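Handout, section B. The chain below has 654 residues.
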Amino acid sequence: MADVSPSEAKTDTLLLASAPGPARVDGCIAAARDWLLEKQAPEGYWCGELEGDTTLESYLILLEAFFGRRDSAKTRDLAHVVRDETLPEGGWSQYLGGPADLSVSCLSYFALKVAGDAADAPHMQRSREVILALGGIEGANTYTKYHFAFFGQLPWTAVPAIPPELLFLPRRAPFTIYDFSSWSRTIFIPLSILWAKKPVVSLPASCGAGELSRTAANAAATAGAPAPAPNNAWRKFFRGVDGILKGWERIPGSAALRALAVKRAAAWMIERLEDSDGLSAILPAMANSVLALKCLGHRESDPLLAQNLAHLDGLLLRDDSGSIRVQPCLSPVWDTVLASFALLQAGVSPETPALLRATSWLLGKQTRRSGDWAGRNAAPPGGWYFEHRNEFYPDVDDTCMALMVLAQGPAAATDSRRREAIRRGMAWMMGMQNRDGGWASFDRDNDQRWLTEVPFADHNAMIDPSTADITARVLECLSHFPAYGRSHPAVQRAIEFLRRDQTTEGCWYGRWGVNYLYGTWQVLRGLGRIGEEMQAPYVRRAARWLAARQNRDGGWGESIASYDDLGQKGVGDSTPSQTAWALMGLIAAGEAASPAVRRGVAHLLDSQRAGTWEQTLWTGTGFPKVFYLNYHYYRHYFPLMALGQYRTAVAPPR
């Protein structure tokens, strides 16, 4: 059957759409532009709120207790958020509108117990029933179990071993810590210190959570029960290794090597606290690092520990009710490159004061020291990171977006500082291309999938392999530089990776945004910008898939549930950000004049309020199936981008 365009794919009333009037499109863009410019900080950056699930507040409640401040005002205020987000039927979800999740629920329940909530309170009774029905603490993930072990709610023998001796593995070993993803590395090295020290902080009996065990006895006595039978050879092998590691600790003479390993792990961690707003500038690693520092003997008055506790406080947001919300990290670089690019796509001159302030600020965020990535990338430092300070951990996604922003306007050629930043950034980014032709986020060739079977890898993010969304964004970035075209070897390898990664339906998986709408938009945009033949059959399949997922209201949406249920691909209530992604994908595929795009644009125009859009559903991804994000400005950046691209496609400026 011959390929047909998305505009031919529907025969119902969708075909009756007419093009929105240019004046209305211009007015909507102008209002969105002004709204965004008002949000810029004086220094030149943007930073929207970043929201996650209640594990964030729970971690800090438990951290307060670890430091002997269980009754603090901070604990009470954090507990308000956890309590308020209890699902009506009990338990806590990973994202707004999602079902109760076992690990999130165990951690949130335990945090409320520590904060003083009684086990017989109605919300606690309902939540306990949900937790037990889902499998109890025995079925929770490693990170949750470690937090229970910190307070004697599980014996240390019941949690997977994370030995600090991992740092002794040489480069020629089958794997090293640098074969773990960067975020896993920074989470697990401090945990290895905690594993070695095995702290147990006493709690009043009323604060315990033994009732979350599915067995009749208390959790501390039963959590070491045999795990379910491994279902593959690697998992069985690593279960055996876990047992050996735990037995090795009892061998005479092992203590000396363990002490050296702890010293090595501490030095590794402390080195990476430099030039950062906390370890990796993400909450789990930051929290683990301060717990580890305390176990290493640092007092709260010590500058190092005091500074890193202050970095954690920098993630707090207090609302009018007095509750404290916790952000998993801050996102100023990411917000700034997206805001700047959206303004550029909307026709704002790169020479305007606002964008000159933004680019000047971005130039100060380019890395100048080698990080963990340097073991497999010989390029000098030159990437950009996500947060205010995180020198060890630049990422490809922020880097290619920063390069696209810096490449705009005459200053890209005339400003020597900008030219040098682009040169360094391009060298670093190209040095990050993986052997399979794609790009990942923080590391190169970090793709040993067998490592996902180690017992402590149940956070579904043990490795950092190539992804379609980042690879396609790099292609879009390369399109701004004449040396890189469709025939460039690196580009050809990237396109081949994308073709291999396409699903049978024609869409692409979204690693860093929800989900197939995100991935498919990114790929179509990257392919179109780099000069791929957009009438190629595989491209037309993708465009048809996008058009077919349009909702009756003209928008697009996809639930986070699509990460667990493939039947939910491209299915969900319309959101501004996902509508914009679909529109940009179709526009890139040459469908700007199609009825689907016209109706999608009309949906955005109709739903704009006071210069912006409202969105309650989450569309950001941290770790698929484990942790999701609500970027509060995604509702704005992407619709502005999409409308700007639509205006350019249907009526190119003179």
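Note. Residues 53-208+233-326 form a domain with the Glycosyltransferase fold (CATH 1.50.10.20). Compare this with the example in section A.
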